[in-house]
Amino acid sequence: xxxxxxxxxxxxxxxxxxxxxxxxxxxxxxxxxxxxxxxxxxxxxxxxxxxxxxxxxxxxxxxxxxxxxxxxxxxxxxxxxxxxxxxxxxxxxxxxxxxxxxxxxxxxxxxxxxxxxxxxxxxxxxxxxx
Length: 130
Description:
This protein has 4 helices and 3 strands. It is of the alpha+beta class.
């Protein structure tokens, strides 16, 4: 489901996470961990994959992931040698240009969100998204 070797874990300053309306546990001091993972295919339940990634990181490493972004195949930034450009991944996360498969604010698959649909039809309201 996930592309081998196509993941980045980056630290993002708390003020940026809070500005993006990402809930951060009180135990965090200055940065939060964000996982950016490329998928092989987009035909799966993205919400389940995100939960599995976050649970695995917590279990194996004892840290909490504040956000997981699944991105389309062949879209993670790499060097010409194939190494992940973590700084560029973090910058794209901060800028909101990662083109994740799930909306950061709602957790709804981006492909299912209509630009003409109301927020209520997705089970959220404008206050819940902000």
